[in-house]
Every structure is written in structure tokens, then in C-alpha cells.
């Protein structure tokens, strides 16, 4: 690794990711590691220039305060302890300053005056490092990539093509939970325009049968994740020398899926949903990148801007936007209403202003009036949010004429729907997706 590194040890603070982002913004690479990391494992991390021990409200396990391995205190690393009793009492703070600017000044002093770190965290160095790591990991073997067409898998594809070329086999699985015309778009861009080695698998009926009567969102995610792996295993058996599975796992996926001292927000299909008997070794080059860093990486790799800034889409697809047990009528309502929303946002110029926008159809109905008669049909919920790193999100204020036009179109063009709502909940305390 060409970058200097600052290690943040997680003792339950809710702002570890904020601190990590600030450090990276200052030009120094940072990673969050468990509080009980061993000295041996810590010493194996490349170019560690300093350690931040960050306490918080969750720094108890079974009512007992947790601490780092005390051997780390005497290992010679500069240490900044915040909200934590540092053994030697040096570089200790009772809390972070109240303003972002003040916190940045504290970090700048620690990084550059205390740790003597260099500002060498940039995408060119990151890409060079990842290409070397991919070549070392993969050798002359082949890699399967789950190519959804979203920014994460697209950037992984570009990295792998740059590192191993034709050893990459891209597999696009239509699980029946795609947005309208999504699979067709993936085939057009990656196979016809980028000349990727692309395998298309239509497994829509297979996935929907597996998900029949499954209402719990965690169970749905795990079923989708496990079934994805099964499909890839089947495709791998048709090929020779497939030993690796590449994924577009990014840092928020890891953080939200939980660590020893952080509560699980939700299991991501590519983190918590993987089967224990996985037949492949994973290749995850974006593992430590936040979402905006993934986009910067894509631009550095030369991907077109429209692909890099493509609307985010979760791995489980519309399966987590058709709430509860998935039914074909509600799934179609999600797909059609989402297409209307995306079309109208593009017309209004909101597609480049709003980070993520989509519709949700819950598993309950409401009374309404359609065609001068009583109706008992589903509501459609619109969600539009802005974020930098997907860890927090604010609500976009959409002008009334735009919302009214979208509402009118959904009510008139989407079957089985008689109500449209707008979700005003930020993250936190809501998450971006409903499930």
C-alpha cells in the first residue's frame, strides 16, 4: 500500500465513520478496526502512522467496559484517545470539539504534527494498490463478477478488467426484482458497448418462488443473497478455473451489517446473507470505500459520468421495496411507479440533483374512490434523499407541481394503486431503504 494509514479502534462510538471520513478528506487513509485487534494483526497493517481510540455510548459488553489490547499502548504508535481512559494519559481528550472545523483542527494536528503522516491518499494510488492486490490474489485463475449495472459492480468490473482482463467473467442475474428495462440496459451497455465477457441469466421465476410468502426483510435479504451464490455456482460449473467471486461490497455495507461493538442496522445481502459453504474466495476491492469515493474511483478509471452517477439500486432490488411478502401485483406497482418517478425527475432536472429516489409499495391497502366507485388498493410511497456517503441522509424538498404531476401519473397509470405519499424521514433515524 502506498498510503499512510491511521487506524481507528472501535469502542462503540457512533461517529467513527465521520472521523474516518474527515481523516480521508485531509488526504490520509484511515480504517476502522475492532477494539480487540491483536498487536500481531495491527503490526501487519501497512504504513500505520497512528491510532485513534474512540470511546462511546456502546463501549460496554455485558455491562463490562471494553478496552483495547494493552500491548498496543506500548507498541510505539502515536495514540489519540477520545472519551476513553488512555493508559499513559497522553494525547487524551474528554470528547470531540463541538464544531466540525474544530474537530478537523484536532485531527490535523494529530495527523501531521504528531504522526508525521503524508497526504498520499488519492484514487490513483488506491487503484494502483488494488490492481497489485488483485493480481496477487487471483494469479492466472478466473473471476466471476455479479454485475448488476450499478456503480459499485461497474467500478469493480473496470478495476478487474484493468488488472486481469479476459480472466473476468461478468454474470448478470435477472432475479425478477429489477427496475423496468434494467436488464436490457445492462446488456446494451456492458456487452454491446463495453465488449465485456457477459453471461445473462434469467432466474426471475426461481427467485420469486423462493421468496413466496416470506415477509421478514432480513430473511428476504438472506434468501436473495444465498440464491445469488447458487446461481453463480451453477454458472461456474459451466466454465473452467473459476475460483473467485468478485463483489461490489463497500464500507457502509460492512458498518451497517454490524461489528463486535456496533449494533446491526440491517444485513446486506453481500455481507450477512452469504452462505457458510461458499465455494468461492471473495474479491472485494471496494471493501473500504465510501460511496462518494467509489464514484471518484470510477471517474479515475475512465468510466463515463452517466454510469458513475447512475441511480443507486440495492442488491435485493425491488424485493426490499415491495414490503412484506412479495406479490406480483405489488411488485409490478413498484416497478411501474418507479419508472414514472425516474422519468419525471429527469424531465424536471432532479435526476442530477437528488442522490437517490425510488418508490415503495407496502403490504396493506387503503380505502379510496376510483371511477366513481369504492376502491381498496395499495398506496405508493415516494422517497427522495441526498447524501454524501450513505451513512446519513437528508430529504429533498420537491416542488409541488412536480410532486402533483408524479402523483397524477401514478394514480392514473399504475394498476391497484389509489394513494401516493411522500416520505419525509431523514437518516437517522430512518434508513435509506424501508427494509
TrEMBL record:
<dbReference type="GO" id="GO:0003922">
    <property type="term" value="F:GMP synthase (glutamine-hydrolyzing) activity"/>
</dbReference>
<dbReference type="Pfam" id="PF00958">
    <property type="entry name" value="GMP_synt_C"/>
</dbReference>
<dbReference type="InterPro" id="IPR029062">
    <property type="entry name" value="Class_I_gatase-like"/>
</dbReference>
<keyword id="KW-0332">GMP biosynthesis</keyword>
<protein>
    <recommendedName>
        <fullName>GMP synthase (glutamine-hydrolyzing)</fullName>
        <ecNumber>6.3.5.2</ecNumber>
    </recommendedName>
</protein>
<dbReference type="InterPro" id="IPR017926">
    <property type="entry name" value="GATASE"/>
</dbReference>
<feature type="binding site">
    <location>
        <begin position="148"/>
        <end position="154"/>
    </location>
    <ligand>
        <name>ATP</name>
    </ligand>
</feature>
<dbReference type="Pfam" id="PF02540">
    <property type="entry name" value="NAD_synthase"/>
</dbReference>
<keyword id="KW-0547">Nucleotide-binding</keyword>
<comment type="function">
    <text>Catalyzes the synthesis of GMP from XMP.</text>
</comment>
<keyword id="KW-0436">Ligase</keyword>
<keyword id="KW-0315">Glutamine amidotransferase</keyword>
<keyword id="KW-0067">ATP-binding</keyword>
<keyword id="KW-0658">Purine biosynthesis</keyword>
<comment type="pathway">
    <text>Purine metabolism; GMP biosynthesis; GMP from XMP (L-Gln route): step 1/1.</text>
</comment>
<dbReference type="InterPro" id="IPR022310">
    <property type="entry name" value="NAD/GMP_synthase"/>
</dbReference>
<feature type="domain" description="GMPS ATP-PPase">
    <location>
        <begin position="121"/>
        <end position="310"/>
    </location>
</feature>
<dbReference type="InterPro" id="IPR025777">
    <property type="entry name" value="GMPS_ATP_PPase_dom"/>
</dbReference>
<dbReference type="Pfam" id="PF00117">
    <property type="entry name" value="GATase"/>
</dbReference>
<dbReference type="InterPro" id="IPR001674">
    <property type="entry name" value="GMP_synth_C"/>
</dbReference>
<dbReference type="InterPro" id="IPR014729">
    <property type="entry name" value="Rossmann-like_a/b/a_fold"/>
</dbReference>
